[in-house]
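Incident log, support desk, overnight shift.

02:14 A customer reports that sequence design results differ from what the structure should imply. Their input is reproduced verbatim below. On-call engineer (initials T.W.) acknowledged and began investigating.
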C-alpha cells in the first residue's frame, strides 16, 4: 500500500500540475503529458506478451534445468568412464598379477618335476644297485642251497643204501638164526632120542639123563 501511494505521489494523474519539491511558488510548473489509454487490443497484446514472457521464462527455467541435468549427466558419464578406466586398469593389473603368479607356479612345478625326476633316477639307481646286490646274494644262496641239496640227496642215497644193506644183513641174520634154531631143535630132538635110548639101556644113568634133558 505504501509503495502504491508513493507511486501515485511521484506519478500524478495526467493533466494536473505537480509542484516541484522545495519550491514555494507556481512559477516553475511543468505539465506532465497524459498517458495513452489502453484499448482492448493493446490489453490483449499485453496479456499475450505477458503469457509469452511467462512461457519463455518457464522455457528458460526448463532450459537451465536441462542444461544442469546435461552437465550432471556429462559429469556422471565422466565419472563412470573414470571408474570404468580405473576398473579396467585394476582388472589389467589383476590379470597381470595372475599371469605372473601362474608363470611362477608353472616354474615351481617345472622345477619340482625336474627335482622329482632326478630324485627318482637316483632312487632307481640305488634300488637297482640294491636289487643287483640282492640278485648276487640270491645267486650265491641258490648255489649254496643247490650244493646243500645235492649233498643231502647224496647223503639220502647213501643212507638208503646203508638201510638197504642193513635190511639185507638183517634178513640174512634172520634166515641164519632160523636155520640155526631149526638145526638146534633138530639136534635137541636127536639128543633127547639118544638120551632116552641110553636111559632105557642103563638104569643107573637115568638121573644124569633127566638133568641133561632139563638143560636141553
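02:41 Re-run completed on a clean worker. Output:
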Amino acid at each position: 500500500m505504501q509503495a502504491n501511494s508513493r507511486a501515485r505521489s511521484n506519478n500524478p494523474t495526467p493533466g494536473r500540475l505537480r509542484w516541484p519539491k522545495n519550491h514555494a511558488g507556481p512559477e516553475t510548473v511543468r505539465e506532465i503529458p497524459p498517458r495513452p489509454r489502453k484499448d482492448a487490443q493493446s490489453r490483449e497484446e499485453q496479456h499475450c506478451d505477458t503469457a509469452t514472457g511467462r512461457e519463455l521464462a518457464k522455457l528458460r527455467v526448463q532450459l537451465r534445468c536441462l542444461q544442469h541435468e546435461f552437465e550432471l549427466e556429462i559429469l556422471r558419464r565422466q565419472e563412470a568412464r573414470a571408474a570404468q578406466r580405473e576398473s579396467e586398469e585394476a582388472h589389467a593389473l589383476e590379470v597381470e598379477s595372475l599371469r605372473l603368479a601362474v608363470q611362477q607356479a608353472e616354474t615351481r612345478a617345472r622345477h619340482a618335476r625336474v627335482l622329482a625326476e632326478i630324485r627318482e633316477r637316483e632312487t632307481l639307481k640305488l634300488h637297482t644297485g640294491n636289487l643287483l646286490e640282492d640278485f648276487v646274494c640270491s645267486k650265491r644262496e641258490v648255489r649254496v642251497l643247490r650244493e646243500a641239496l645235492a649233498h643231502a640227496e647224496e647223503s639220502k642215497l647213501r643212507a638208503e643204501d646203508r638201510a638197504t644193506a642193513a635190511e639185507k644183513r638183517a634178513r640174512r641174520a634172520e634166515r641164519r638164526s632160523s636155520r640155526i634154531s631149526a638145526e638146534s631143535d633138530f639136534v635137541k630132538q636127536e639128543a633127547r632120542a639118544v638120551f632116552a635110548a641110553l636111559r632105557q639101556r642103563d638104569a643107573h644113568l637115568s638121573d644124569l639123563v633127566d638133568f641133561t634133558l632139563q638143560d636141553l
